[in-house]
Amino acid sequence: KVNGDRLWDSLMEMAKIGATAKGGVCRLALTDLDREARDLFIDWCRQAGCTIKIDKMGNIFARRAGKDDSLAPVITGSHIDSQPTGGKFDGIYGVLSGLEVIRSLNDLKYETNRPIEVAVWTNEEGSRFAPAMVASGVFAGVFDLEYGLSRADPSGKTMGEELARIGYAGPEEVGKREVHAFFEAHIEQGPILENEKKTIGIVQGAQGQRWFEVVLTGQEAHAGPTPMKVRKDALVGAAHVVTAVNKIGHSNQPFACATVGMITNSPNSRNTIPGSVFFTVDLRHPEDAVLSKMAAEVKAAAEEACQQHGLSMDFKEIWYSPPVKFDANCVAAVKKGAEELGFDAMPIISGAGHDACYLSRVAPTAMVFIPCEDGISHNEIENATKGDCAAGCDVLLRAIVERANA
Amino acid sequence: KVNGDRLWDSLMEMAKIGATAKGGVCRLALTDLDREARDLFIDWCRQAGCTIKIDKMGNIFARRAGKDDSLAPVITGSHIDSQPTGGKFDGIYGVLSGLEVIRSLNDLKYETNRPIEVAVWTNEEGSRFAPAMVASGVFAGVFDLEYGLSRADPSGKTMGEELARIGYAGPEEVGKREVHAFFEAHIEQGPILENEKKTIGIVQGAQGQRWFEVVLTGQEAHAGPTPMKVRKDALVGAAHVVTAVNKIGHSNQPFACATVGMITNSPNSRNTIPGSVFFTVDLRHPEDAVLSKMAAEVKAAAEEACQQHGLSMDFKEIWYSPPVKFDANCVAAVKKGAEELGFDAMPIISGAGHDACYLSRVAPTAMVFIPCEDGISHNEIENATKGDCAAGCDVLLRAIVERANA
Ligand SMILES: NC(=O)NCCC(=O)O
Ligand SMILES: NC(=O)NCCC(=O)O
């Protein structure tokens, strides 16, 4: 069994880096705060006897040697970056659970056959730099390195520049090595486990996602003397699409989610009719066919907005992450761990994307979910209990050890 | 007759300060560019023999002495600040027309009975600092000085701080002196004169305006695992209101205008359900009763959005500028000038607010409009012809001289 108090203390210590007024964390990818948190993690890993490697995407691997250190490792981990108004469990819980597994194995002087590595994947959130899971995507060969390093934030700074700036542009090749298995522990970020009163979610896979960037262009004009009937108001067009995206989410139930998370209006002046609006669309569904249908519906709504309001548009799909099914053996290892420990557990499909989604393309993969309060994540009030955190970490320990010895 | 070439050259010279790629101007109130343009104007006025006074709101008065300099002056003028994507005529045309009147009187060695002053009113646009026409409002006693100086831009900088920073916090008391008459020349900023093929608009008054600031608050949550039915999406609520504002504009024809010009979404992250949205509403109508009805309709739409989407709201009216009727004698002076010069002219109601609206509370006031291309303003492509600029200035000259000698 892991040390739940130690895991909790590490979570709370880490949560100080980027702490926000409402009890959350703002630790955007590749900011100084991200660096500070990475430094602390590496410090803790070195104290636990690990060796550290960093690759060209800034992914960190903290390694505990195996009996046969030439064998492919079992890797676990998640991410350190957060949303602008993020919580203190999303991502970092999976990273520190990995560390706690190593600390616990050290306490027990337990040697696994294969090496175990704790990974920190760069920019999982996709908030500062889109898309999400970009560095685990490069690791898995889904994106090439150049694509990964050239992702830019809204101010134009690239991941490559920012990795160099914070000193995390490592020397290692990205990916291109065998991974025996990958496990990721994470808070659920939704309400299902809590509603079903379960401690452990045995994650079977993840729903698919499609991300879009849309620019609607009309014509700036004076809000006072410009008659309603001659206006080309880009924001009125964008509002039409925001409303439609929401309806498309509701009309593709069960499971569909559809969100406009980001919108930037130009020139954004009180008495000027908006001339152009940029916004993003995030669509999710576990079935690829429904996801595609939703995408077509959004596009049709944007075309309708253009026709009704005299606008032109640039409509781009910038990311497609297909539905994922995890490895049967790894899922079984998670299930077995939960059963042996006597936790109430249930199978679950992840609503969010995770680095595990991309890892599953190059290694047998599974995930462990624990509940979060009211199902709330990507919010400063995100919360989880010490007991659930320890429970998830216990299951992770068993699944890792089972695979590392198999 | 004024010198139309000289007026045009001055307009083009001034348009270099803050020039944008698409041929417009970005010269936000109290920025370094505003200072540069003010400095140039003062330079030109001194060369034309004027004395300069600057008041505590940064309003500039360039004075040409009258035969009896103890008499109250006739003032003309407008503003130097622009929209973020503004044109090279809005405001500055009225300022430089005033200067051209003085230059022409100098050329003719013509002495008026009363002194003539060219005024530059600070922050007319209301874009960087809301509301519009704030410094002419303080001059007219509509706002007190403290209110004027404490207006803040989105980054929190106040007009008082920024006036001090650019060296335009002058020593003079604001207002509190007699003004014999006020005239303002301006581009129409709408399509009426062009559609009616008229050179001169004899402005009878201006429609009323009401400005609002609205914050809708929901709950941030993850765009992936958060079911549609439990969401409190502030942007979906805002989209409802944006759509409603546009409909309210259309349903209160003739004359009504209704615009959401500014919107800021938080946390503005692609995969986070928006937790709060700030936006502005600009309502206009020449009849006060209709304007009030429109305001009530907007409020009802915002309340509906809150109910439908589980949001709370902060709904504030931040500015009310009632419909204005200009002084019969001053309007007659403009009409007479246009008639004597043989221009096609028509009476018109201003769709925009102008410093003249506030001046009309403390002095007999009127305005001269000239057409602008396609009725487009608050846009970098804003345009007017050299001939129309000269025509408006000629009318201004006659109206000013008539009042300054009366
Ligand atoms: N776990 C998580 O918040 N991932 C971010 C990517 C996504 O939006 O699904
Ligand atoms: N003339 C002008 O653009 N004024 C700004 C105030 C308004 O929006 O009416």
Automatic annotation (TrEMBL), chains A, B:
Recorded GO molecular functions are: hydrolase activity
What is the protein named?
Answer: Zn-dependent hydrolase
The record's family statement is: Belongs to the peptidase M20 family.
Pfam name, any one: M20_dimer
Domain called Peptidase M20 dimerisation: residue spans: 206-306
Keyword field contains Ribosomal protein: no
Q: Which Gene3D superfamilies match?
A: 3.30.70.360, Zn peptidases (3.40.630.10)
Q: Which UniProt keywords apply?
A: Hydrolase
* Native organism: Dongia sedimenti
The question of whether Ligase is a record keyword is answered with no
What is the top-level taxon of the source organism? Bacteria
